Amino acid sequence: MTQKQDFTSTIISNRKLTANFYEMELEAKRIVFNAGEFFQISVPGHTLRRPFAPSFSDRNSFRFTYQLVGEGTEDLSKLLPGTKLQVIAPLGHGFTLPPKNSTAILIGGGCGTPSLALLASRLQAENITTYTIIGARSSCSVLERETLSRYSNKLIITTDDGSEGLHGNSVEGLKSLLKEITATDTELRIFACGPVPMLKGLSTLAKNKGIKAELSFEERMACGFGACMGCVIKLVCPDNPEGYIYKRVCHDGPVFDSREIYW
Ligand code: FES
């Protein structure tokens, strides 16, 4: 596991992407982490840090996308380059890189999409065939279109309102893609990040098709490192009379094998 660090970082840029999504780039020297792991970042004037999964990183900086969902992210969006923030990183468990001869299917929904851009870049570096599905409400809210297109053998966009790509959700997109690639002789692996209903739909389809899927959950987090129990989800546990146990998304996830989830 990568060593966790608590460091001060300077904002390089903070720009608006769409009506309610922003992207921030922060300075960070040589931070090593797996795609899907997350960072806890301070917001001046707020006690709790906020969790964000990077969409890009190199030897000098990292970027993440965030949605305006409350006072904390509203205040974050007003910060100017040069502002210093406290960062704890990396946290949690990320995605597992699949074997070389496998085929990866990445599926992102809403603000879960950007973190898959980092995974896509790492899969390309490993020469792993990658198909990507982006699910969005409409064409104007599709995130990381260019990056995911560049790193994918094929990009499918689905929109709820039919304004771009396939009219429907990302589960429909996956059904459509699987019809095209059933002839493949490589092992398929699904990697997804997005809202829980989307993850549940993908999990059911993956189970029916016998495809291994890793799902990244976006629970609200307080402490971010396992102390407050504010981010629990249910995992299957046949030994318990209830059939499940609680696990912390920040500590035991945020990425879980779909077969572990008690829906
Ligand atoms: Fe505190 Fe997960 S956010 S335990």
Structural features:
single chain; 263 residues; alpha/beta; seven-stranded antiparallel beta sheet; 6 helices; globular; binds FE2/S2 (inorganic) cluster
Task: Walk me through the structure.
It contains six helices and 16 strands. The protein has helices at residues 71-77, 114-125, 145-151, 170-180, 196-209, 249-252; strands at 5-16, 21-27, 38-41, 50-52, 56-57, 61-67, 84-91, 103-109, 129-136, 154-159, 166-167, 188-193, 212-216, 232-236, 244-248, 255-257. α4 (170-180) runs parallel beside α5 (196-209). The model has no long low-confidence stretch (mean pLDDT 94). Bound molecules: FE2/S2 (inorganic) cluster (FES). The site of FE2/S2 (inorganic) cluster (FES) has 12 residues, from loops.
Calculate the mean pLDDT score and round it. 94
> H/E order of the elements?
EEEEEEHEEHEHEEHEHEEEHE
Q: What spatial form do the alpha-carbon principal axes imply?
A: globular
Instruction: Tell me the distance between the termini.
Output: 29 Å
**Segments where pLDDT lies below 50 for 5+ residues?**
none
Largest sheet: 7 strands, antiparallel
Question: Are any ligands bound, and if so which?
Answer: FE2/S2 (inorganic) cluster
Short synopsis of the structure:
The protein is α/β, with parallel strands linked by helices and 263 residues long. It has helices at residues 71-77, 114-125, 145-151, 170-180, 196-209, 249-252, and strands at residues 5-16, 21-27, 38-41, 50-52, 56-57, 61-67, 84-91, 103-109, 129-136, 154-159, 166-167, 188-193, 212-216, 232-236, 244-248, 255-257.
